[in-house]
Amino acid sequence: MKDLLAQFNKAFESxxxxxxxxxxxxxESLSFNALKELLQLTDGNLATHLRALEEAxxxxxxKQFVGRKPNTTYTATEAGRQAxxxxxxSLESFxxxxx
Length: 99
What we know:
This is Transcriptional regulator. About 60% of the residues lie in helices and about 20% in strands.
């Protein structure tokens, strides 16, 4: 059981990060405001979790202007997709091991 627990990715331990990655895997990319609204997180909370995922290499950030307003969008990287899939597989193995 310790081996299964060791396979969990600490980057995805928080509900917010798990939610961010889940949403970005089913959407090509989303804006900060769309993520904030969808996940019901505050600006600061969302920004903190996005920064942690970016530093881990799991997100790509694109900044541009739409009209005169800045627009930041987030996309899961291939490394992020793989790390998230590995994490989910570890969770599934852990759950099945308990059954």
